[in-house]
Amino acid sequence: MFTHTPVDHIDFNGRRVFVKRDDLLHKDFSGNKARKFAYFLHHDFPGVSRLVGYGSPVANSLYSMSALAILKGWQLDFYTDHIAAQVLVSSKGNYAAAIENGANVIDLSLVADRDGRSCKEYIEQVVLPNDDKALYVPEGGRCLYARDGVHQLAREIVNWFESCQFDELTVFLPSGTGTTAVFLNEYFVLNKSCIKVKTCACVGGENYLKQQFSELISDTSFHPKILSSDKKYHFGKLYKAFYDIWRKVGEQGIEFELLYDPQGWICVEQHLLANPEPAILYIHQGGLLGNATMLPRYQRKYAAV
């Protein structure tokens, strides 16, 4: 049901940077979550009637899983540690859209038998043993099933790369769990391609990201290169540098999301200054729905700065 997404370009600090528009993958099911969840969309799961996941109530994965559930005719039960009051009353963003799609979002801070368990532990110890019709997807889609859709993305990139007749290419994307980055690089290494993947750690530090890579693929020769930022950023915190570069890139006519992409573009900017590479392709991983709640926060904090 997916079509190949186009490649656009922007002028960034005097350099042309190509952009793989995975935000245009599907009107209801786009970006890296759609790639990671593609296996579940394209395969049958006899007897499954419920999709189970967990994470932040404002995460892109929540909305993407709610869209997947609709497409498959499943009920989504999504567990979270806590839902803030402003999220509950907001009419915009991932949480509101997921609720509109029929998602059942469970706030475990209100569940009596949680007994200090994490979301993952609660699902594995309480939920799944009592439901043989549930399909469980780990947080953010970090599982081996994600390889299927990410390798399809890699094939699209290879086809575009060959049509452009470049000698080499650097693919860049910011990482949370690093699932997309490591499976992309795996494909390029296996196929002896002149394409290399570089990424940055947005959730936790470089050691955390390396651990996430290793849990999916133990052979480090398949791991992408992690670029270091000039400073440490805390995930989800509002930084003026993030807001500034988001606006700067957006002036080129492509909107990016506000959670991962600002750090991603800062790393690209620093990397291009030190490494004038022949061609770079930035993966637009979607997530724009979250801007409806993130952008007002930035505007309140930095509009007058």
What does this structure look like?
- The chain has about 300 residues and is an alpha/beta fold.
- About 40% of the residues lie in helices and about 15% in strands.
- The protein has twelve helices and ten strands.
- It has helices at about 30-35, 40, 60-70, 85-90, 95-100, 120-125, 145-165, 180-190, 205-215, 240-250, 260-275, 290-300; strands at about 5-10, 15-20, 50-55, 75-80, 105, 135, 170-175, 195-200, 225, 280-285.
- Strands 1-2-10-7-8-9 form a six-stranded mixed sheet, sandwiched between helices. Strands 5-4-3-6 form a four-stranded parallel sheet, sandwiched between helices.
- Helix 3 (about 60-70) packs parallel to helix 5, helix 7 (about 145-165) crosses helix 8 and helix 10 (about 240-250) packs across helix 11.
- The radius of gyration is 19 Å and the shape is globular.
- It starts with 6 loop residues before the first strand and ends with a helix.
- About 40% of the residues are buried.
